[in-house]
Amino acid sequence: MALKQNILIVGNGMVGHYCAEQLVAHGLNEQYAIHVFGSEHHLAYDRVHLSEYMTGQDPVPLTLHKDGFHDAHGLLLHLGKHVHAVNRAEKTIETDDGIFPYHTLILATGSYPFVPPIPGNTGTAGLVYRTFDDLDAIHAAATSAKHGVVIGGGLLGLEAANALRQLSLQTAVIEFAPHLMPAQLDAEGGEALKHRIEDLGITVLTNHATKEIIPGETAHHRLVFSDGSFLETDLVVFSAGIRPVDALGRACGLDIAPRGGIVIDNCCQTTDPSIFAIGECASWEGQVFGLVAPGYTMARTVAATLAGEEAAFTGADMSTKLKLLGVDVGSIGDARGAEPGSKNFRFIDEQTGSYRRLVVSEDGSRVTGAVLVGDNSYYDTISQYVQNSIKPPADPAALILPRGENAPLLGADALPDSATLCSCHNVTKGAVCAAIDGGCTDMSSLKQSTKACTGCGGCAGLLKSVFEAELQNRGISVDRSLCEHFSYTRQELYSLVRVHNIHTFQDLMDQHGNGGLGCDICKPAVGSILASAWNKPITDPLYIPLQDTNDTFMANMQKNGTYSVVPRIAGGEITPDKLIVLGQVAKKYALYTKITGGQRIDLFGAQLHQLPDIWSELLEAGFETGHAYGKSTRTVKSCVGSTWCRYGVQDSVGKALDLENRYKGLRAPHKLKFAVSGCTRECAEAQSKDVGVIATENGWNLYVCGNGGMRPRHAELFATDIDSETLLKYIDRFLMFYIRTADKLQRTSVWRENLEGGLSYLQDVIIHDSLGICDELEKQMQAVVDSYECEWKGVLTDEDKLKRFRTFVNDTRPDPAIHTLPEREQTRPADMPKERSVPTGPTEWTELCSERDLVPNSGVVAWYEGAQIALFWLPDGIPGNPGVGRVFAVDNHDPFSQANVIGRGLVGDLKGQPVVASPLYKQHFRLEDGVCLEDESKKLTVWKARLNNGKVEIKSELHSNTGHNTLMADA
After folding, report:
1. 8 A C-beta contact, residue 923 and residue 935
2. DSSP character for 933?
3. Which residues contact 523 (CB under 8 A, 6 or more apart)?
4. Could you tell me if 241 and 233 are in contact, meaning their C-beta atoms sit under 8 angstroms apart?
5. What is the pLDDT of residues 181-220, one digit of tens each?
6. How confident is the model at residue 661 (pLDDT cuts 50, 70, 90)?
7. pTM score
8. Torsion sign over Cα 84, 87, 88, 93
9. At how many degrees (to 10) do helices 724-741 and 774-786 cross?
10. What is the pLDDT of residues 835-871, one digit of tens each?
11. Would the N or C end of the chain have less CB density within 10 A of its end CB?
């Protein structure tokens, strides 16, 4: 039998790996022996989301394929092997492992970060941001640093700045051009982005050329600029662009473009027909494409060509949608208006720092490009106008103006089948339709079938919209069930709870559920519904198993498993005596202290067992819970108003106090933020809140459905010059209508955008009572107001509830894994150690704690000889074996966050298997064997557990086939 001829891929980056997948998809692995050479020791990984590695330093979540991919398809992977030369005459390559012949050679060598020849750019003054190894070097340099600088204000430079910020460095960005992201943004967009980034505490210097780097006086290095000014820093990361890695092609005589890159034609062939080049090492018509989507298109072209199919690479859409340092940035088509005669529409919102520019053709018949800074919710619609030459609306500016009721919406039906939904994998609307016709009826199978939304992920919203619309067009019902346990939406469950007077999760499950324990989706949602409807304390034993850790312990869990304490400071008004108390408490318990944007004071770093003592002192001083932990009313921000300000026309502080004291404790689908401004100068920023109130000479103006967070939305003017009584009446009705009709975890801004009929419909319901429900809404709100109680006050007077606030139920010690470091005269969490010994536990049945220490359908943590053991008690059994109570014992250590928090996770079941959801990042672990459902390479140690004469006992049983302690069924 003749040996197969070789296809050799040089480069195991995103594009090289995708090319291997495409060769397999075309069956070429049956005809050829496919070898992949990668100079790095890692499997192919996702460079688009490289910054996520900096927070966890775990390469596994970024790996692009499952273990065994290459073996399963007969591909030979050579990791950590360099290719030194190509011999075109012999059709061989020279590698670390010797000589390999090829029938076809595919060069996917990518690019390298360009470091300008600035004197002094070595060591920690010459770092780059490109690979895992690069990020490891940055992380190591940051351990002894306070300041960091990134030279380069492009896409990758801002990602690098974010990485330095995540390492708690004071960060600066230096850009040679007049504005940030010069390749994607115009001057105004770059300036808007600069302001948004500076608001995060990052210094941005544009129009600065670094002349040399010399030793610093107050830091390790000094950057000297061409104008004579300087900046001192402890490390320097260069992100000044990329250069093609074209040395192999250059050395073997392939044509190289004047600006670098191996020259290719429309089939991605080089000047040697046996050699192809794809990705950032290739130059097509003088262009090198620095995004992953064009590289993927090239890979598809090569695979199709080798399979004998017709295919051509004809350029790429370089539109980008991403979030840089938490700021939405979008660039679409001819974003800078290079087409002759282009006309521009601009929208600038100085209050939120948002900027949008729309570019249309000279005759106004086509939208040709756009720039978006601050809000990418406009991206999908505009990109479809550009890509598919859809005629713009009569007033094109409406495409970028704040979305009111008349904003033009481009529905799925308006898109042609050729419309590209996912540019990474070239998935069109037609391909989605074909997948549906082929049997895909859920998003998971659609992604698997088409690969859509598995690249950068930016197409998720549009893909879902088109998918659901096309299902409905085919008469297929779209499953909007809350989860597998309830075949109802959140709105429908709320109505069932109200109509049938349901007060517990179990009653709702018995009457309207699908059986099972529930999960981390339905339990908190139902808990919120019950709290909104009946306002019973969330500390009620029946409600404890429904709450996420924040609500369970009435504090916000931080990344190391400690909590923040946020007492209510209504309207932002506080006495000197109370300020002193906060300082004394923070000092006594060594809590990090910070003033929030909502005019409150956060105290960070409290361990679980400290919370009751802290709150006891705060309540004694007259504070009460601030509900910062709940999906509820958070804050009512205010300016000083007419009491002090010479411009104020009403008492804004007094009104803020009225509102906060009325709506405090109100549970809702999502958090609620209010603000009251004493005049139209708007110092409280009321027009960026869920409920905003602005004083006028004749009363109050009411604004609703604003959002100043991740997706900013300008609040809409709802009613003008209304008196105080009418103001409260409208807010009562508005909030209860939102609670009644919104989806789970849906902010008022998103709820409003999805509300059929828009603002006028909402005004008809609330002001004109078009549905005849206003009296009912007001009574429901008044019932909530009348039944308010401080949740912490109820806990501190109940010994049974206080028992929950123990780090370990059988030991008084704090969590020994929690450490802090000094920073700016306060403390911050130390990095959690990456390495730890796996706990073993006793080899014989050993008493751990009392049965009375367990919490039904929830978790606690016990201590055993250095091991932290999370115990979960399911008194009614598990799906498939009801009525037989079970105790589960698993390691309390979360392998993703490295924090000891699993025992505070929410217990439920998924597909009949009992699981616990990590309270930090929501990964699910099976209680039976500890395996993570999202990543099977991550496992918790588990022990056998049982109840014996009122005692909880555990026993280790090590199974040789897994190497893990495995829980066996034992009554």
Report:
1. yes
2. S
3. 505, 545, 546, 547, 906, 908
4. no
5. 888 888 888 888 898 888 888 999 999 999 999 999 999 9
6. very high
7. 0.57
8. negative
9. 90
10. 667 777 888 999 999 999 999 999 999 999 888 999 9
11. N
